[in-house]
Amino acid sequence: EWHQTANFDFLYLPKSAAGQTNMGYAFINLVSEEEVVSFTATWHKQWFASCTAHKPLNISFAVVQGIRANINRLKKKRLLGLEIRQCEPIILKNGKLVPLAEGIELSQVSRRA
After folding, report:
1. What's the CA gap between 20 and 99, in Å, rounded?
2. Residue partners of 74: CB distance under 8 A and separation at least 6
3. What proportion of the chain, given as a percentage, has pLDDT over 70?
4. 68/106 Cα distance (integer angstroms)
């Protein structure tokens, strides 16, 4: 149902410990304030017809902001060691999907710059 129109560089949908179901929330890092405004206006309080959740989407700001901070948070939680590929975050550079290891390296390089 979500036709990706937002400009983001990080998307993470946490899964249960067994990796079978999602936790009911997601983290998305939109790349500009304009994207945040547009995404929120489009999706806040909307329902996904294919979703079994009994509540609409609730868009809110996360404490952690930015791709680098999001990747570092995952590293601290040791989620990057997951063997289940479907549990990995989506990391984009210039709109193209990059492997998780490359996304980690990009976050470290940009910190040094």
Report:
1. 22
2. 12, 80, 89
3. 75
4. 8
